[in-house]
Amino acid sequence: MNFNLTLIAQAVTFAVLILVIVKFVWPPLLKAIETRQKEIADGLAAAQEGKSALETASKKSEVALNDAKQKASEIIGQAEKRANEIVEEAKTTAKVEAERIKETAKSEIEQEVNRAKEGLRAQVSVLAISGAEKILRKEIDAKAHTAILTQLAAEL
Amino acid sequence: MTTEHTAGNMAEHSGEMTSATDYINHHLSFNAQAVGDGNHSFWNVVHFDMFIISLVLGLLVAGAIWLVARKATAGVPSKTQAFVEIIFDFVDGQVKGMFHGDRHAFIAPTALTIFLWVLAMNLMDLVPIDWFAKLTGLFGEAHAPFRPLPTSDVNTTFALALSVWILMIFFSIKAKGFGGLIHEIFGAPFGMPKLFKPKSVMGFIGLLASPLLYLANFMFNMIEYISKPLSHSMRLFGNMYASEVIFLLIGLLAATGIFGMFGAAILGALWAVFHILVVPLQAFIFMMMTIVYLSMAHDSH
């Protein structure tokens, strides 16, 4: 236990070391660590924010998607309805047209029939006259009995 | 490891250093150098071995940590930086738990300094005791004493404890003022009687008893102030000195022969392993007591 100048020397060394650590070692380490801590904290906060933003966005997108689905089904419904209407309209139009065509055809047929009847009638009368002429060549004067023959032809 | 060399040394020296007492005395002597012209036992002697080793170790640890701190990045740290940061955080956490002020200005870095330096010095305990004697023999006198463990010199530990003690008084005055310190020395732990207008009988008795109270407070505080640096320094010194002596005894055992050598090798290894625990523990305790003393200086009673 002999105290001597070593005591002072060690105290001086101690003071110098403290000075070095206080001035040159502690502050940069503290700064680095605190900056990193802040960065990590900020990063975590940002991640949290991002998470909540993502949640909101996904909710929004879900709503939008539902809206779109609803609209789409509405549109499809309308379109189906319209298509049915168009088909119905087309059917009606077609029916009317068919009816009209049928009518036209009927009247045409009637006209044809009438025309044919007229033709036949004329031919029959001609045939009847020629037949009667052949039969009654001698007795019947064509000129005298024209009225009777015409009447006959008309009755046919 | 320790023991083989001890055995070798002993065998080599057996001609000159005949007794075990000589061996131990030699290893417990400092490399004392005369300073100046006088013959004063305090002012004209310095333990060169203690001074140079603690200085080199101090510069080594401070330099090493400075190199890391200089390039410290807030981004992804290198493994070395991560290691330094673990120590940093460990010390900072201890200070944070006890000191509630701006610890980064002085107290935390001081605690780090103490921890690293004392740890480095204590680690010299694990260097085989005869290596340094061999090494210095190569340079200076063949058998000049040279002790490698600075904390086994009471000068070193007391220098640290005394520095902390002075810092303690400095911070005490800084936090409470000189009047506050004096007030505390005479007023704590038993309190102070109200000097003016004693309102009750008890108060009047207190006024009469006040000189006794002052005296008791003063005595208690003096005991505290004296015991603080003593217990602070003696704990570290005692542990390290005892460890060194035990290593010397193991070295002696190694010198007794082939069986002694093997026995000493095993014992030395065990004692060294035990000191892997003791060395950082003592450094930690020294640091903790420093933090406690400096924190207490900031508290007012």
Largest interface: A-B, 33 and 50 residues
Tell me the distance between the termini of chain A: 171 Å
- Helices and strands of chain B, in order, run as HHEEHHHHHHH
Overall number of structural domains of chain A = 1
What overall geometry of chain B do the principal axes of the alpha carbons give? Answer: globular
Bin the strand percentage of chain B.
Answer: under 5%
Question: How large is the radius of gyration of chain B?
Answer: 25 Å
Low-confidence stretches of chain B: 1-15
Q: Mean pLDDT of chain B, as a whole number?
A: 84
Helix/strand-derived class of chain B? mainly alpha
Protein described:
The complex is a heterodimer of chains A (156) and B (301). Chain A is mainly α and 156 residues long. Chain A has one domain (6-116). Helices cover 90% and strands 0% of the residues of chain A. Chain A is built from two helices and no strands. In chain A, α1 packs antiparallel against α2. Chain B is mainly alpha-helical and 301 residues long. In chain B, 72% of the residues lie in helices and 2% in strands. Chain B has helices at residues 2-13, 20-27, 48-70, 79-98, 107-123, 131-139, 154-187, 201-254, 258-298, and strands at 32-34, 45-47. In chain B, 35% of the residues are buried. Chains A and B meet through α1 of A and β2, α3, α4, α5 and α7 of B.
Distinctive features:
heterodimer, A: 156 residues, mainly alpha, 2 helices, 0% strand, B: 301 residues, two-stranded antiparallel sheet, 9 helices
